[in-house]
Each structure stands twice: as structure tokens, then as C-alpha cells.
């Protein structure tokens, strides 16, 4: 089971169980709560009626006195009431009056006159000066519906301490059952809404948490696969702290591996020029003709220059290779960009007797101006190194598909077929025409990394009319994450 589903089910289970028990308590408390409220009103009404019946009971006119007449008229009234969406058209009270011995002397229903109620709990306790109440079946033998009875003592109007009878006020519980049922339905309905809302909140919270966890998962997979990926976006919670910790760990691990790789590459490339320098230095310690001494001195200077160039370009390549994404970018006008790149190699081109022609067929591009200038500089330096004197190098830009193609075309000897697939490898280089010297073999690798950071591509091909053409294609819109190396 996936973590997101576990979180959601756990949250929903906790909320669901809590809501279930809370609703169950509320539903179970509705009925006794309403009946307790009804009992309280019956107590008030019973004591009021007991005071009103006291005079007639003492005078012996309880069956035909004013109290009975008034009560009969009240029971014939139509309240025309609408209580909480339920109509009420009759009075539900039943009044029973007993004498001081518990014998019924008046019953509003006319059924129980003469019956001995002294053993009924409401009358029995009231005759002994206690609070008396009971609940009994509305129909004997049928416990489906019950009637609540509340008794009040009737005292002698002349002597407020002498008990002369008991008034029992009864009301069927079925008169309040619709209100209890409506309350229970309302609680269940709102409880269902509560559970549904809780489930929605749980789903949203789980989705929010899993969004962060899934981003960290994708980030970790990309890092383990060696893909360049920006660090996780900062968050002010534990997931954000975990993302920052993973990014710190990635940088340290990649930095360690990167240093080990480059130390190995650098030491391998430094062996040849260092061996040449050491051999020339040993020979210079011996007596040599001036011409040979000058030759070996120039060899030492040349190899030292080669070492310096290798280290400088290796540092520049290391810098761009460490970028998981483009650090900065802006809208760049192409004409000034191409001209700046041409000006940077103008002295070297002039020394080689080569001219550079700039043709900007597009207006602008989005990217890092410094990296693009350095990439064009490397392409132009290669073109100058392989171009014969008196030729022209064309530096141009034109729209191609949904991007811009920056081209550098020369009229040199071109690239041998066996080298076309390897020219972008680190430290791979070809001998320069005339001198036979090789470069550091890092320039085209640098250009390839710049193309990757911009979401573009670099290609080198031979031209039909002679020479080679390098094409640095860049998209019009930069990608959010550069493609894999």
C-alpha cells in the first residue's frame, strides 16, 4: 500500500471513528434530553394546576367545580401552533386527582375514577412528601409507547401544610417523538457532512504532503540517474528541510566524485607536456649548440603554455558542468553578441591571416550572455586554427525551426571522418595544420555543456565546398530543466 493511501486511510479512520462515537453519543442523548426537558415543564404545570384545584377539592366539588370546567374548556382549544415544522392542534395533558388516601376522585379522561393509585410511584412518593414521577405504557402490555406522569401535592388552602390530595399530570411521550426523530436525523445529516468534509480535508492534506514527497522522490531518482535537476523548492516544514538536506548531500557527493574524475583526467593530460618539459630541461643542462638550446627553450615555453591553456579550459568546463540548470538568463541582441565574440579572437585571426565576417539574420535570443560568448569564442578559435591564411570565417545567426542557429563556417581542411563522432569528447583534439600541435581538447566539450544548459544542441559537419561548419542551435524558450548530459 502506497504512503499516500496509508496517510489518507489513517486520517479518515481517526476522524471517522471520532465522528461516529460523537454522533452516537449525541443521538443517544437526544431522547433522554428532550424527555428531561418535558418532565421539567410537567413539574411546573402540575404545581400550578394543583394550586388551582385545591379549593374545589377541599369543598368537595372537584368533579363539578370551576377547575374542572376551566380544564375542559382548555382541552377543547385548538392551539393552531407550528412547533419546529410540526403542527400542534390539541392539548396532550391528562389530569388525575386523588384524595389524601390515593383514591382517584377526578380523571380528565373519565376512566379511572375510584381507582386506588396509592401504589403508583408518582402518587405514593408525593403522599410521603417526596417528588413523585413515573413512566408507564400508554397501553397495558405494549412498551412501544409510554406516558410520563408527574405528581404535585394539593394542600389545604387554609393550612398550607396539610395534604388533602395529589394531582398527577400525564403526557404521552409520542407527542415529542417527532421532535426527537427530527433532531436525530439532523445530527446524523450534519455528522455525515462532517465526515465528508473531514475526508475532503484529509484528501487535500494527503495530496499536499504527497506532492512534496513525490517531488523529493523524483529529485532523488534524477540525481541517482545522473540527470541535472534544480534543487527542491524551499518549504517551511520538515519536507523542505529534508529536501535541503538531500541537496546538500548531493552537492557533497557530486563534488567529491567530480574532483576525483577531474584529478585523474588532469594528471593524465599533464603527463605528456611535463615529460617534454623534463626532457628538455635535462638536455639544457648539457653543453648544446645555441640553435638546439633555443629549440628546447621554445619547447619548454610551448609545453608550459599548453599546460596553462589546459588548466584554464578545464576550470571553465568544470564550472559549467557543475551547473544543474542555467544560473541566469536574459534577452540578448544577437548582432552585438556575435560581434563581441568576433572581437575577442580578432588578434589571433589577424596573426593567422584569417578574416571573420559577422552576419546576424535574427534579432535576439534568450540565454546567458557570458556562456554564449565563451562558446562562440571556442568555436571561432577552432576555426582560426584550422583555416588557411587568406580565407574568411563566417559567423552568423538565423532562425531555424522553433529556435536560433548560431553558425561558424570555415574554409579549412575539414574534420576527418573517423573524428566526427569524437570531437566533443573531453581531451580529444586533432593536430593543427602546419604546426602539428594539439589543443587541450576541452573547447568543444565546453560548447556542448553550454548548449545543454540552454536546452539546445551542438553539431559539427564538413561542408561540401570545403571546410567545416559548427552549428549551435538554441531554443527560443529556455526549458525549466536542461536535458540530461
Automatic annotation (TrEMBL):
Main location: membrane
Keywords for this protein: Cell membrane, Kinase, Membrane, Phosphoprotein, Transferase, Transmembrane, Transmembrane helix, Two-component regulatory system
Keyword Metal-binding part of the UniProt annotation: no
UniProt domain HAMP: residue ranges: 207-258
PROSITE patterns to which the protein is assigned, alphabetical: HAMP (PS50885), HIS_KIN (PS50109)
Catalytic activity line of the entry: ATP + protein L-histidine = ADP + protein N-phospho-L-histidine
InterPro entries: HAMP_dom (IPR003660), HATPase_C_sf (IPR036890), HATPase_dom (IPR003594), His_kinase_dom (IPR005467), HisK_dim/P_dom (IPR003661), HisK_dim/P_sf (IPR036097), Sensor-like_sf (IPR029151), Sig_transdc_His_kin-like_C (IPR004358)
GO MF annotation: an example: protein histidine kinase activity
Location within or outside the cell: Cell membrane
Entry keyword annotation includes Repressor: no
Superkingdom of the organism of origin: Bacteria
Topology with respect to the bilayer: Multi-pass membrane protein
The enzyme's E.C. designation: 2.7.13.3
SMART domains per record: HAMP, HATPase_c, HisKA
Positions of transmembrane segments: 6-27, 192-210
Positions of the Histidine kinase domain: 265-478
Name this protein carries in UniProt: histidine kinase
Provenance organism: Stenotrophomonas bentonitica
Lineage: Bacteria, Pseudomonadati, Pseudomonadota, Gammaproteobacteria, Lysobacterales
Amino acid at each position: 500500500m502506497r504512503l499516500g493511501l496509508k496517510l489518507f486511510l489513517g486520517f479518515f479512520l481517526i476522524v471517522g471513528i471520532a465522528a461516529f462515537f460523537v454522533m452516537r453519543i449525541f443521538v443517544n442523548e437526544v431522547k433522554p434530553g428532550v424527555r428531561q426537558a418535558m418532565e421539567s415543564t410537567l413539574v411546573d404545570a402540575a404545581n400550578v394546576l394543583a394550586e388551582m384545584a385545591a379549593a374545589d377539592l377541599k369543598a368537595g366539588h372537584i368533579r363539578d367545580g370551576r377547575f374542572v370546567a376551566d380544564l375542559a374548556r382548555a382541552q377543547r382549544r385548538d392551539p393552531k401552533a407550528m412547533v419546529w415544522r410540526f403542527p400542534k392542534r390539541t392539548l396532550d395533558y391528562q389530569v388525575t386527582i386523588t384524595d389524601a388516601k390515593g383514591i382517584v376522585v377526578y380523571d380528565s379522561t373519565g376512566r379511572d375514577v375510584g381507582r386506588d393509585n396509592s401504589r403508583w410511584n408518582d402518587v405514593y412518593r408525593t403522599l410521603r412528601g417526596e417528588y413523585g414521577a413515573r413512566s408507564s405504557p400508554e397501553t397495558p402490555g405494549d412498551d412501544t409507547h409510554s406516558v410520563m406522569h408527574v405528581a404535585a401535592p394539593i394542600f389545604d388552602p387554609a393550612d398550607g401544610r396539610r395534604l388533602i390530595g395529589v394531582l398527577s399530570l400525564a403526557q404521552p411521550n409520542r407527542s415529542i417523538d417527532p421532535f426527537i426523530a427530527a433532531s436525530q436525523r439532523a445530527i446524523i445529516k450534519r455528522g455525515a457532512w462532517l465526515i465528508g468534509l473531514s475526508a475532503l480535508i484529509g484528501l487535500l492534506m494527503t495530496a499536499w504532503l504527497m506532492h512534496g514527497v513525490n517531488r523529493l522522490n523524483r529529485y532523488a531518482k534524477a540525481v541517482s540517474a545522473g540527470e541535472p535537476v534544480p534543487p527542491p523548492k524551499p518549504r517551511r516544514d520538515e519536507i523542505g528541510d529534508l529536501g535541503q538536506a538531500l541537496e546538500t548531500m548531493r552537492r557533497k557527493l557530486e563534488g567529491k566524485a567530480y574532483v576525483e574524475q577531474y584529478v585523474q583526467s588532469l594528471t593524465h593530460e599533464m603527463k605528456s607536456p611535463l615529460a617534454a618539459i623534463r626532457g628538455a630541461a635535462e638536455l639544457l643542462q648539457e653543453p648544446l649548440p645555441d640553435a638546439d638550446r633555443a629549440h628546447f627553450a621554445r619547447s619548454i615555453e610551448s609545453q608550459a603554455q599548453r599546460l596553462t591553456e589546459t588548466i584554464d579550459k578545464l576550470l571553465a568546463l568544470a564550472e559549467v558542468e557543475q551547473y544543474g540548470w542555467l544560473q541566469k538568463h536574459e534577452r540578448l541582441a544577437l548582432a552585438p553578441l556575435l560581434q563581441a565574440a568576433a572581437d575577442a579572437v580578432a588578434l589571433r585571426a589577424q596573426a593567422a591571416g584569417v578574416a571573420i565576417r559577422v552576419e546576424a539574420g535574427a534579432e535576439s535570443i534568450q540565454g546567458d550572455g557570458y556562456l554564449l560568448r565563451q562558446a562562440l569564442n571556442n568555436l571561432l578559435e577552432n576555426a582560426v586554427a584550422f583555416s588557411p591564411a587568406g580565407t574568411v570565417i563566417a559567423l552568423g545567426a538565423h532562425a531555424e525551426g522553433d529556435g536560433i542557429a548560431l553558425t561558424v563556417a570555415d574554409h579549412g581542411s575539414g574534420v576527418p571522418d573517423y573524428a566526427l563522432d569524437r570531437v566533443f569528447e573531453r581531451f580529444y583534439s586533432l593536430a593543427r595544420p602546419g604546426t602539428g600541435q594539439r589543443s587541450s581538447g576541452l573547447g568543444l566539450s565546453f560548447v556542448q555543456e553550454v548548449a545543454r544548459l540552454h536546452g539546445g544542441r551542438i553539431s559539427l559537419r564538413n561542408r561540401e565546398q570545403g571546410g567545416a561548419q559548427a552549428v549551435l542551435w538554441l531554443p527560443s524558450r529556455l526549458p525549466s530543466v536542461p536535458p540530461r548530459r
